[in-house]
Structure formats: structure tokens, C-alpha cells
Design a protein that fits this description.
18% strand; eleven-stranded antiparallel beta sheet; 3 domains; Glycosyltransferase; homodimer; 14 helices; Glycoside hydrolase family 127 protein (chains A, B); 619 residues; seven-stranded antiparallel beta sheet; alpha+beta
Chain lengths: 619, 619
Amino acid sequence: MHTSPVPVAPSNGVLQPIAIDRIVIDGGFWGERQQLNADAIIPHCLKWETKAGWVENFVHTLEGTIHEHRQGREFADSDVYKLIEAMAWEAGRSDDAELDAEIERLGAMIKAVQREDGYLNTNFDNPGQQPRYTDFEWGHELYNYGHLIQAAVARIRTGRADSVIVDVATRVADHVVAEFGAGANEKICGHPEIEVALAEFARATGDERYLEQASLFIERRGHDLLADIEWGRSYYQDDQPYRDAEVLVGHSVRALYLTSAAIDVAVEKGDVELLEIAKRQYDNALARRTYITGGMGSHHQDEAFGDDFELPPDRSYCETCAGIGSVMVAWRLLLATGDITYGDAIERALYNIVATSTAEDGQGFFYSNTLHRRTPAEVALPDVQVPRANSSLRAPWFDVSCCPTNVARTFATLAGYLAARTDDGVALVQYAPTTLDVDGIGLKVETAYPYEGEVNIRVTAAAEPFVLTLRIPAWAAGATVNGESAEPGVFRLEGVTAGDEVQLVLPLQPRLVRPDARIDAIRGTVAVERGPLVLCAESVDLPEGMTVNELVVDPSGELRAHGAGAVLPGARIAVAEDDWPYAAAPSAEVGETFDVPLVPYHSWANRGPATMRVWLPVA
Amino acid sequence: MHTSPVPVAPSNGVLQPIAIDRIVIDGGFWGERQQLNADAIIPHCLKWETKAGWVENFVHTLEGTIHEHRQGREFADSDVYKLIEAMAWEAGRSDDAELDAEIERLGAMIKAVQREDGYLNTNFDNPGQQPRYTDFEWGHELYNYGHLIQAAVARIRTGRADSVIVDVATRVADHVVAEFGAGANEKICGHPEIEVALAEFARATGDERYLEQASLFIERRGHDLLADIEWGRSYYQDDQPYRDAEVLVGHSVRALYLTSAAIDVAVEKGDVELLEIAKRQYDNALARRTYITGGMGSHHQDEAFGDDFELPPDRSYCETCAGIGSVMVAWRLLLATGDITYGDAIERALYNIVATSTAEDGQGFFYSNTLHRRTPAEVALPDVQVPRANSSLRAPWFDVSCCPTNVARTFATLAGYLAARTDDGVALVQYAPTTLDVDGIGLKVETAYPYEGEVNIRVTAAAEPFVLTLRIPAWAAGATVNGESAEPGVFRLEGVTAGDEVQLVLPLQPRLVRPDARIDAIRGTVAVERGPLVLCAESVDLPEGMTVNELVVDPSGELRAHGAGAVLPGARIAVAEDDWPYAAAPSAEVGETFDVPLVPYHSWANRGPATMRVWLPVA
């Protein structure tokens, strides 16, 4: 039973998480976003969930008129719960009493509509609605519970086990065990989420029944408990038993939530085989089904992974929630296996998906994060909820608005993903200005990373000499620690004591990157990265009237740093208009060379509608 | 008023269609398929529509129990109507009395549920159902009418104006005019189809009110009469007025049906501007948004056109119905403008989409026609209706089964698309063994095209000397007519008289084709065509254990004819497995060269599950 404020709390594992009251982010890239979360994102989400009527759904349910008034999709309840989770973490982090009171207000509203037997939903089983548990494919009843339970986990871990939401979630969890336990209603939810929530609730409460239920839900998949649908049972990971899958398939958020759950269950039950299976699926997804941004999901239609190496940049879906799901999985694997190089995947997804999703003012979000925009986006109006996941500049709110609250709960707990306890000291996994104070070890980290490569670590306390472990990113060939070469991977500095100063230098010169030959859609292109940041060309930086679609670059030219990005020589191609685009020798004239500015991908689309591309065709 | 058996009957235009009782296909590539249609496809469709319950829907509607029993999607009625249209054309072509009786039986069943005021639908407005005309976005009520009316048009033109379905359709059309005329309920249908049907019904009946109604429906689009949806109003061509669009957008079948209607209305009303607009949109779609197969539609999600040059082969949708829609548009433009080079687009879509869709035994169909299959397809069981448009080997039936009946009606009328009357003679647009006898001109065409390049045309009758116009396909550099060079485009042979023999020779050596530099997804690849056939590599022809994903070819090597396809030197690449697919210099070893057999794309997936690709990466 683990009640300190950590986003994930395994009872065992090679590494141990550090509570977010023991590690604090002191400004910088992530500190600014954490503050933006408190000041803007969370209030924005509450405003929109109220405006969209998703909060009011609970009131109408209490009044018995929900069938006339319900707003939002079948999973709208979950967005309220996910917001409460974000608020709970933020209230715990910042000791914000108002936020705390708001959580209790929302919790009381939710509690009021919970049934005697624990059932809770605004979309089923109320007067005039379809009966409960009649649509496991799309109903999301268990999915909704999952996010409710995770809100309760956040409350317990931030010292508010007495919160009304914990009471509600406990009754829900008990109801789930009674209803869906072994020998009872042996079903599963189309959208995995209840599994990871129950595993974490078992950790938070010490009640093993919840862990067992999570395990049952995982092992039941792949036995045709859900209907075949247009996109196949792989859409909801029901095409084969979990243990048989070699790689992540189907709806990417579902796949990643399920994998998180499998790791949690494996760790708690000591199921080495299950851990290895989850690791295999994720590792294979990283190697063959992940965009350079760390984004996952190649299909818009079913928000799903494609086949191996099916990674079209212009149709990349890369849902923000999948980026967060990838962080969830990688962090769990890092703790369980002790392999801190999973921090590479976390870093990539955080800087290039999570940070990209959020507008600079915290009032807009990308739901999907494309790698190539061929036409300037329509401008999202600040007060209009949009029906589209894939359009517009960052939009304030979506009909399906899972991403903003997912970003909010991630930012609120971000410090918890930066470092971990090792048996012999501390491992720094991500580099940000932080103050750490755990088990007698004190560290002060100062850095302007990712914009500058120096990371200065001062040891402010050490009860005894310890080992400081550093992640050297795979891209960081030429890194040094205290002036000595540090190969990409893991760097251990032994016998560290109070007063020591350690300087890590990560090389931030821009780098040309080429794709595996099997990725068809980006053959003949290069990308440029700088540190952990993927760069992109945005048409606002190109000559007047030019889109990125006519851009070619010369990878043999000088690639040099420029602002936070880079500059590479390139040119504009001119293709004669023809009435058919396939020929023995189609024409394309390459114009004069000019400097092509490349900017961090996360910063794109903050300067008005533009075209953009990450992968740059070679002249 | 035009009642001879032509699939499209403009009252004016540069060229005139030839009725299918005046031009007969004598076997060969298309003759075999026309026979397959009569023997297998039409009976197959009737069997499945019965089995799926879509026919029975009318019976349950009559019984007042449809709300309990209805099967199929909201547009299931249309599939019954489209089958009746196919049966009507086939009954007219073959004088099949049994087929004729079956049509009347189905017609009587439909008539029985038509309301007093003409309204007709099994999915709305019956006891227990949603009221009529309450869902123009998705309800498909007018779309269903469209296909009903087209069935009636087929009956009228094949001499059965007394058919019960003509009576039903007339009452429907009158109801539509009354309900949706100027100043009445000024709405439009989310799925265009009623427009082209009404325009053709006006031609078949001589009643101008139907033409006017078609015109109204077209001009109403683009004024937000339909709701904004996840995919935007462009999905159903309601994002801008029809006349403002520069290129086809949105759901490709909808766009093509609407364009067909616009051409019909333009021709009948002498609206030169509207004709030019429709032509512009289609021409631009051909130049920028069409696959090498003639397929249209790059998005699975919304079955839609993508942006210009967004043509991913592995996510090509290329719905069979869109291929047919493209034939409908190109044929109309050909007649209206006299530009027989639109026959190029027709030829491409017929050989590479329509012919590809249909299994050799006529018992299975592709709904979408991908250009790259990375993993072997699952086998579709012969007796299982599949929920997926994009999976399996050709499947016997789909939850959405618009394609098989669309193929059936196209095959039944195919002769009508092969030639046209010019002011001074006859133009041959497609080459197939045919017997033609129109207005005193008789032709006997003998050829094994597209497998052999010789087309022998014997003039069997000529009331007076006439001009024989031949389409020389754009790909046919080196073609000859009677031994003399014939440039791609239009070839006119003047003073042709009875007894003349003309030999057209089309060069059928395989050709390498490269894409426009702006098509990102196929940069660094080539394709091979032979005559009108696009070729592809299929893994059943590759060395044991190899998929097309490891294939590269050497376009500088000898490309030679082989069977109906070709052979090109190629090799297998070996890529070292890595944990991340992006690097400064990813490895890829090219193995030994071997001969890569390429087969006609339309023939693929007839030899069991396989991987396949049209665009071949260059080593």
C-alpha cells in the first residue's frame, strides 16, 4: 500500500519512483508548462466541460431527466473524472485549497447519482436510457469507471483518502468485482482503462481483489467477447489473447492503456512472463510502428497502429493521448526493468507530442499531431467546440476531448517521471531544473535544456556516498560528464557525496536523420533533430507564397544551429502542371538554393495557419 | 425524351451515345465479364440481399413490424434498387423473361409499402421508427430514391415503361418535387444521387420538373444546410457552393455522383458555365488526386479525396464505386465535349478498378482497392458477410455492399461506353471485340486487347462514306493505324466505306512509369504498366518467404514482357533489426539480383493470401 504522491506506485521493481513532493521542477521548459497547467489548462478544461454540459449531465441524472438533456459522447463522464484526477494532483502539488474544495463539490455531485449497488453512469440505465451493460463494444461504462478510480488514486496519494471521490470509487470498484468477477458476468470493456485503474487502486488501497479483477480483464481479451466490427477485433485488442501478441495493434490509446495495466499486474503478481510480453509488444511498436516524434497511431479511421513501417507523415494520427499512453508504458517498464533508456521514449513523446499538443497560452490543443500539413489549417475559433480530431490550428475543445485533460493530469505529475531511486542512489532520467530531496540524497539540477546542453548537478545532501546514474540519450553521441566521454545509454558516477558538482554536457548541434528503408512513405527524405527536439519546416519561414510541398533540401549542405532550431540549404521545385501525374519522366525543376529555417516541431502552428513538414524531400 | 437502351441519354452534346442493342460485345476481356455478370454476379447479389434481409425489409414494412426486424444500414433499400437496375439492364440486353418477372415481383413488393403521398422507406417513418426527413446528414432517404429512379430509367430505356417500378419511381419523383421544390422544404441529401437520377428521369420521361429539381438540389449545396460533422461539410460537398469548387473534395463517390448530375443538368439546360465547372473539378482531380489505377479516394476514415498529391498507396481507399463514378463522369464529359480522350480515364478505371474488384468467379468483391498490401489478407469465407470495406481477400458481401450491385449495373451496360456517334461517323473509344450497327454504319471489331495490341476493324456497312475516329491512348506512343504512325490523342480516318479494313496496333511492351515529384508517398519508386493495365508485384511470385516489403527493383535493368505482365530485375533488401527506425545512416543490404515477375493488378489476390505492391522502390 503506497500513499505517497507518485503517479505510478509499483510495490516492487528495479527502480522506485520518487514522490512529487520530493522532486520539484524549478521553472524551465517543463516548469513553465506545469505552471501553465495550474493557471490556464485546468481552469480551461473545467470551463469547457461545464459549457459542453458534461458536468451538468450528473445534475440531470439526479433529476431523472438525463435522457432529455444528456450532452457529449458516451464517455463524457470520463472527461469529468480525468479532470478531477488532474485537479487532485495539482491540488496536492500546490496545496490549493480552492481546487481541493472544487474537487469535493464535483465529487458530491457524482456521488449523488451513484446507485445503491455502486453502478454509476449518466448515459445508461437511467429513465429513458438503454439498460446498463448492454454495449461493451462502445458503451465505455468500465472505461469511465477507470478514470473515476484513477481520480480516487490521485486523492489517496495526495493525502485526501477522505475525499468523497474515494468513497464513490471504492463502491464502483467493489461493484465491478461483484459484477465482473470470476464466474460472474465474464465480459470486458471495448476501451481498456479499468484494468490499469484497478491495478493502481489495489496499490493505493491494499485490496488485492482489485488487482485480481484487473488480471481477469486482461486475460479475458482475445476470446471474442466483443463483436467483430468494421475495423476488426484488433481495434480493441480482442483479436487474440494478450499473451499471444507480438506487437501493439489496434486503437493506440487502448493498446497503451492495456499494456500499462499488463505491466502493473505483472509487477504486482511477480509474473515475469507477462512483463516480458508487455515489454516485447511495446519494444516492437517502438522499433516498427512509431513516428520520429514518438507519436503512435497511423490510421485516422480507427485511431490505430498500422502495419509495421506503415508510418505516413501526412496521415499520421499520433493522438496526444497515445503519446501520454506511451509515457505511461515506458515509465512502468523503466521502473520494472531498471532500464533507464526507456527515458529516451519518454523524452521524445514529452517534447514532441505532449508539448506540441498544447498551445502556448494553454487554451488550445492538438488532438492528433500530424507530421505533414499540406494546406494551411482553418483557424479554430476560441469559443467553438470542434467536431474534428484532425483539423484546425489547436482547438479549444473537441466533441471528443480526451486529450486536454490527459495533458493536464500529465503536467500535474510530471516531476514524478524525471528521476527514480536506484538501490544505490538516484537515477536522473530527464533533465530539467529540479530540486530533489529523497532518502537523504539532495540534488539541485540547473539547466536550460533542451535549449542548452549543459546540465549542472549539485549534490546538496548525501547521508552516505551514493551512485548517481545518468541517462545519456541515444542521440547524444559526444556527451560528456565532467569533461569525460559518456557513451549513449547509462552512465554511473560512483561515490558521490555532498558538495559534489557534476556537469553533464549533451551535444545540441542539429543532426540529420534518415528513415529505415522499409518506411515507404518517407523514402528519399531526411529529418533534422536537435537534442530531444524534432525540427520541422513551417511555411511562415519560407519565401512568400511557398508551401512546404514544393520544398526540397540538400542534406550534403551545411546544417547549422539557428535559434532553437536549425538552417539547412534547400530549394523550391517547380513541376509543370500536367493532366496526369504519372509519366516516363515527370518534370521537376529545382530552383535556386536558399537557407531553409527549421523550428522545433512542438512550436509549430503558433504563428497562424501554415503548411508544415518534418520529413524533407532530398533534391 | 430518350427511351432507347443507353446508360446515359443526353438530349444534346458533341457526341451521341450508342444504344446497347446497337453495339454488342463479342466475348473477350469484357464479354467474359458481362457473361459472368449474367450468370454469377447478379444471382449472387440477389442471393445475398435476400440472405442479409434487405429484401425482406420491405415485407416487414408492409406487415408493420419493420422496427423489430429491419436489417442492414440506413441505405439498404438502395442496394435492392441498384440490383433491380442491374437486372433491368441485363433483362433488356439478354431478353431474359425470368429476370424480367423477378423484377416485377420485387417491384410489386416495393410498391406495396409506398405511401399514398409517394414516400417510401423501410428505415424511417414506419411504426416505431424515427419520422421521415429528420436526418438529412445520414438518413439517405433521397439517396435511396435516386437508385430507385435509376432502376425505373433502366426499365423505360429497355422497353418496359409499363413496369411497376416505373410507376413507383414516378410517384416518388413527384413526391420529391412536391416536398423539396422551390419554396418548399429546401433541404439536400447528405449523399448525392437523387440529382443524377432526377436528371436522367427527366430525360426518360420528358418531364422537365425533375430536371429543375435536380438543379435545385445541386445549387443548394454549400449553404450549411447540412450539419458540420467530424470530417467537415466537405465530406458531403456542402462546404462551398458547387460552382465555387476547383477540385473534387470529400467522400469520393458522393463527389462523383454529384459531378455526374451537374454535367447532366448543364447539358440539358445549356448551362455552359456549369459544364465547365464540373469539367474543371474532374480534370483537377485526375491531375492531382487520382491513383495510377484510376482509383479515387485517399482516406479510409471518410472515404474521401485527400489534398492534392496526397496519394498513399498503402492507405489508398479507391472504392470500387468511386471507380464507377469516375467512369460515369468521364463518359458524360466525353459526350458533352466530344473529347474522346476522356476514354483514357474510363479505360484506366475499368481495367484497374472495376475489373480488379470482381473475383474471377463473380462471387467476391473488393470494396476498396489498395495499391499496397503489406501483410497477407485474411481469407474471406464464402458464406460470411464481412463488416470491413478494406480487409480480406475479395469478400462475398459487406455490411455496406454498394459495390457489387454497382459493378453489376456497370457490366450490364458496358457496351454503351465503348463507342459514340460523331456528326460524321463513329468514334471507337474502347477496344473490345464488338459488332456495331448504328444509323447505317456497321463495324466488326476483332481483337484480343488488352492482351494483344492488334485491333482489326472491318466495315460491314456504310450508307455513305463516314469518318472513323479512334482514341489513341496517351500511353500508346508508337501506335499505328494501317501501318501509319498515330499520335496519342484522336485519330480520324476519313472517307471510310463498306468493306474497308482498318488495323490499329497499340504497342503493348511494358513501360516504366514514375510519379510527379509532389506525390510524397511514392518518392523513389517506379511502377510498370502494359497497355491499359497497371502491373504489380505479388508475393506468391517472389522467392519463398519474401514479402513485397523487402523488394527493390533496378529500373535501369531490362524490362520485358512476360505472360500478361512483365519481368524486371530486382533484389531483396535486408535491414538489420534495430530498436529505433531513424538514424544518421540506417543500414539496408541489397541482396542478389533476380527476375521480379509483375502481373496485371486486376488479377491479384486470386491465388490466395499474398502481399502486393504497385509502386516498386528503386534499389
